[in-house]
Amino acid sequence: MVGIRFHGRGGQGAVVASKILAHAYFKQGLYVQAFPSFGMERKGAAVSAFVRLDSAPIVERGDIKNPDVVIVLDFSLLRKVDVAHGAKPDALILLNCKENENQNPIKGSFRVAGVDAVKIALHHGLGSKTAPIINTVILGAYARVSGDLALSNLLEAIETGVPVSPKQNMAAAEAAYQAVFRISGDVNAD
Amino acid sequence: MKKVMMGTEAATMAVKLARVQVVSAYPITPQTVIVESLADIIGRGELKAKYMPVESEHTAMSSCMGASLAGARTFTATSSQGLAYMHEMLHFTAGERVPVVMVNCNRALAPPWNLYCDHTDSLSQRDTGWIQYYCADAQDVLDAILIAYAVAEQALLPVMINLDAFYLTHTSEPLDVPDQETVDLFLPPYHASLKLDVNDPKTFSIVCGADLFSSIKYKRQGDTLAVARLWDQVAEKYNSHFNRLHKTVEAYRTEDADLCIVSIGTATGTIRLAVDRLREEGLKVGSLRLAMIRPFPLEGLQRAIAKVKHVIVIDRDVSFGAEGIVAQEVKAGLFGHRGDLKVTGFVAGVGGNDVTVDTIIPLVRQAISGYGNAVEAGMSLWAEVLP
C-alpha cells in the first residue's frame, strides 16, 4: 500500500488533483482510492486530500496518517501546517516553490523535490497571478519524481479529469515534468 | 466496464441504469452531488425522467409517494437533517406500500453542527417500516440500488440505501459498471398492480377503524420480515447476472472465531484489517457486517455467530438513555437464543472520527480484559471521549 497526502488551500484543487492521480494509477492497473478531508472549510483554508494505491483491493478508509508521499500545493502552508507530520522516514515530499530558494524548508530525512508551479501555470494561462491554478502542474512534476507513473497515463487522466482547459493543463503538466528539481535526498529529477 | 467513481456517482449511475421515471429531492451535504448530477442527466435527456425540485425533504418524499402510487419508478436522496424532516412521510410511504428507493448519506445530526459520518440519522428512523441497507463500498452502492428496486417492487415496501458520509459518498474507487442491456434483463419496468388512474378510480389512504387496523399492520409486519430472505434471493439472482453477491449479512473469518466484531457500513473494511492483525497474534476473531438492519437479518446473524463466545458491536450511533442502536438490535436478536453469549457494545467513530485499525485493536483488548480508554456510559463504552 502506498499512501499519498495532498496539502492545499480550499479552492486550489487538491481534491481534483487527488482524483486525477487516482485515475492515472488506475490506468496502470492498480487499485486506487481518493478521499478528501472535506467539510466546512472555506476558500483559502488549509485542506488535505488522500490517495491510496495497492496491487490488491483497498479496504481501509479514512485519513492517511503515515504517507509515503506528501504533495504541497501552497508554499505558505509550511508556516501553518507540519506537512511532514507522520510521513515515513524516506517519504517523498514535493513542494510548489521557487527554484532559487536553495534551503530545504523540510526538516528530517525525507526526499524533497520542488517545482515552480505558479510560474508554469501562469505561463500556460491557468488562473491569475493572485489565484494561479497549479493542481495539474504539480502532478506533472510528481510523475517525474515518483519514478512509477507514466506521463502519458497522467496526461490522459488530466484530459478527462479537469472541468475546463484540458489542453493547457496537459501542456503545463508536461512542462512541470521537465522543470521539477531536487531539493534534498535521493530524488529522481535528472 | 471498470471505472473510478465516488459513492455518490455510483448512486447516480444506478438510478440511470434502473431507468427511474421520477426524481424529487432537496439538496443537502453530502448528498448534493447525487441530485445535481441527476438533474444534469435528466436535463440532457440521458435519463427520460421527471425531475421535481421541491422546497423541502417532506415534500420530496410526498412527491415520491404520489408518483409511486401513479405507477412510476421513483427515487430520492437525502441526509441527516433532511431525513429527519421527512420523518412523517417515511411512515406514510411504508404504510402506503409504495416501492420508493432512497439514498441516505449517513451524516451526524445537529447540534453541534457536523457534516461527517454518523449512523444515528437513519437508525433513528428504523421504526418507520423502511427496509434499511448499509453499503460497504462504491460497488455495493451501485449494485444495492438495483437490487433494492427489484426487492421494493416485489415486496411493495420502500428501501433506504445508506452511504457513509465522505468515507463512501466522496471516496473515489474502482467499480464495475454493468451494461444497460443486462440491467434491463435483471430489472424489467415497474408495473403497479394497483395505481392512481383517472380512468379507473380507486381510493388510497383509507380511514380505518380498529376492526381492520391490526390486521393491516400484521400483514405488513409479515411482509417486512419476509424481505430478509427475499433480498438474499434477489441478490443471488443479481449475482447470476453480474457475478457479485450482496447479501444481508457478510461474515469474515468467523468459522472458527471465539470473538466476532459486528458493524455496519464502511468501517467493516478497516475492522477486517484489524481482524487479520489480531489473528496474527493468535486471537480467534472474525467480523460480521450487517448490511441490512430492517428487517433485522436474524437468521444470518444467528448462523454467523453460532460458535462465537463473545460479540463486540461497534456503533457509530447512539440511542440516548440506552446504548448503541446496533448493539441493542444484536442483543434483542440473540436474547433467548444464546444465553451464554457475552456482548460488549462500543460507541466509536461518531461525527466523523476515523475508525482505524489503531482504534479497533485497543477496543477488542478492552472488551476482553475490561481495561482500556473507552469510558462507560450506561451499557455502552465510548471511544474518543476527551478526559
The total of helices of chain B stands at 14
| Architecture per CATH nomenclature, i.e. the level-2 architecture of the largest domain in chain B | 3-Layer(aba) Sandwich
- Report the uncertain regions of chain A: none
Proportion of helical residues of chain A: 25-40%
The shape of chain A, in one word, is globular
Number of helices of chain A: 5
What is the H/E order of chain B?
Answer: EHEHEHEHHEHEHEEHHHEEHEEHEHEHEE
CATH architecture level-2 label of chain A: 3-Layer(aba) Sandwich
End-to-end separation of chain B: 50 Å
Q: Helix and strand string of chain A, N-terminal first?
A: EHEEEEEHHHHE
Please give the number of β-strands of chain B. 16
Could you give the order of strands across the largest sheet of chain B?
3-2-4-5-7-6-12
- The 3D shape of chain B can be described as globular
Any idea how many domains of chain B?
Answer: 2
Which strand-content bin applies to the residues of chain A? 15-25%
Stretches of chain B where pLDDT is under 50 for at least 5 consecutive residues are none
Mind summarizing the main beta sheet of chain A?
A: 7 strands, mixed
Summarize the structure in words.
- The complex is a heterodimer of chains A (190) and B (387).
- With 190 residues, chain A is α/β, with parallel strands linked by helices.
- Chain A has one domain (2-184): Pyruvate-ferredoxin Oxidoreductase, domain 3, CATH 3.40.920.10.
- Helices cover 31% and strands 22% of the residues of chain A.
- Chain A has a seven-stranded mixed β-sheet, covered by helices on one side.
- In chain A, strand 2 and strand 3 form a beta hairpin.
- In chain A, helix 3 (135-146) runs antiparallel to helix 4 (151-161).
- Chain B is an alpha/beta fold and 387 residues long.
- Chain B is 41% helix and 20% strand.
- In chain B, helix 1 packs parallel to helix 7 (138-155), helix 3 packs parallel to helix 5 and helix 7 (138-155) crosses helix 10 (227-242).
- The interface between A and B is medium-sized, with 21 and 23 residues.
